Amino acid sequence: MIPKSLQVLGTSATIIFGGFVTLNFASTITIGALRAVTEAKRKKVAAPCGSCKGKGFYKCKLCKGNATIKWSPLYDPIFINPCLCPTCDGNRVQRCLNCLGKGFY
Ligand SMILES: [Zn+2]
Ligand SMILES: [Zn+2]
Q: Which domain of life is it from (predicted)?
């Protein structure tokens, strides 16, 4: 038979632990909800970025969407090599520097 005092201790520990987990869970949800609300508010208030028209990215300015740039080490028109664009790494688009890719201010 289990002594009564130990049983009580076990029960209270379960309650404390359960309460802690519940509290933790609740705060996680609260923080998540708050974050979602803040983000929604920001999106509502925020004006869409004019540079990328709210997309968060625009056509790469360096390669003009070609993914490669014509680069010559000697400025010689005969030795022009197509190089992978260093700005967009061949993605043809670059992240909007105006809104840092968010699409809005
Ligand atoms: Zn590029
Ligand atoms: Zn932008």
A: Eukaryota
